[in-house]
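Lecture notes, continued. The same structure-token format from the folding unit now serves as the input rather than the output. Read the line below as a description of shape only.
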């Protein structure tokens, strides 16, 4: 009977059984705390992974801001989740949030310092901020860590091109062609470097190789056309522009550049038609108005030449050729003072042709 009384007593105070927990050994308490922490950690990791996967889906849909938010949630729940940092930086670069991308990559590199592609994304961000020195350092770091990473050489080449270091750009694009021989863009861009240093035959060779690699790149064919115009291979240039326009009927630059070639061939009506087509597609493209002004001038239509040159100046007040063309039209319309004023302005903007006209026709 006594035993029953004791049991009833124990049940009567069953609500205070928590006191037994305080009596756990230190080893038992450590085990209990570890289990609790593990459960909490597992829950956070699950939240992190879910947010990360949602971010990837948003990124695929080009919903970059939403992706950034999801990657941020993933990082909050798992501060060592390196892919979340990396993809967050990629998304930030995609929406030109370059400073944020740099901060994200800095945090990533504190966790994993030898992450080559992370340096690549930071280099992209620095390049977006026109911080070429830091961009160059990061591209070099990528190449050191991942010497076969084609994109690093390609972007390094574009960086050098932007800095007008064309021979170094050629070296970088050459490395791309060695690692990825089917890369049409690398051949095209190396061709543009050769064109900038007036090695036109090498430029044409690279452009034509790019066109063989990918026959559907209209801008490559346009580059072939403009370069062949420079070396006065006009029929070949026209053929290249025609091919470009067969791929992209709204490629206004190809119409404009074909018009320039028509001008060089003294086919002024055809030139006017091409410039007009370029204007129809892009009414804000100032060079097409200036070029059409030149074509009208050659046709003896000085009023329309003046009108088009004025429109070009309205759209781009720093377009030297437009002032030259308006000056020529004004001269023929017996407005020598106006012509001299236009040539003077064009001289200020760096036009050598305007310098000749001004020196030959106007008092200093």
């Amino acid at each position: 009977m006594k035993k029953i009384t004791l049991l009833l007593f124990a049940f009567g105070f069953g609500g205070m059984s928590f006191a037994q927990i305080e009596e756990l050994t230190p080893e038992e308490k450590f085990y209990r705390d570890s289990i609790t922490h593990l459960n909490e950690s597992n829950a956070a990791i699950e939240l992190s992974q879910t947010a990360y996967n949602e971010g990837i889906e948003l990124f695929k849909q080009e919903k970059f801001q939403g992706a950034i938010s999801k990657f941020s949630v993933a990082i909050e729940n798992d501060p060592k989740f390196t892919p979340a940092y990396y993809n967050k930086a990629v998304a930030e670069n995609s929406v030109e949030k370059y400073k944020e991308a740099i901060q994200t990559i800095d945090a990533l590199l504190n966790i994993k310092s030898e992450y080559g592609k992370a340096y690549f994304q930071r280099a992209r961000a620095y390049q977006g901020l026109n911080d070429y020195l830091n961009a160059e350092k990061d591209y070099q770091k990528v190449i050191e860590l991942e010497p076969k990473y084609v994109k690093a050489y390609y972007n390094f080449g574009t960086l050098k091109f932007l800095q007008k270091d064309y021979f170094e750009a050629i070296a970088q694009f050459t490395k791309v062609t060695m690692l990825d021989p089917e890369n049409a863009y690398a051949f095209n861009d190396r061709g543009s470097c050769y064109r900038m240093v007036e090695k036109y035959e090498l430029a044409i060779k690279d452009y034509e190789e790019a066109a063989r690699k990918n026959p559907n790149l209209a801008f490559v064919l346009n580059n072939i056309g403009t370069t062949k115009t420079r070396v006065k291979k006009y029929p070949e240039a026209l053929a290249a522009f025609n091919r470009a326009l067969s791929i992209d009927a709204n490629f206004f630059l190809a119409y404009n550049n074909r018009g320039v070639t028509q001008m060089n061939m003294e086919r002024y009506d055809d030139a006017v038609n091409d410039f007009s087509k370029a204007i129809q597609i892009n009414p804000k493209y100032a060079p097409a108005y200036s070029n059409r002004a030149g074509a009208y001038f050659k046709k003896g239509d000085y009023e329309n030449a003046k009108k088009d040159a004025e429109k070009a100046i309205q759209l781009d007040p720093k377009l030297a050729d437009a002032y030259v063309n308006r000056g020529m039209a004004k001269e023929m319309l017996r407005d020598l003072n106006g012509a001299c004023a236009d040539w003077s302005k064009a001289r200020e903007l760096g036009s050598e042709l305007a310098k000749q006209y001004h020196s030959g026709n106007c008092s200093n």
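Point for the exam: The first helix runs from residue 2 to 12.
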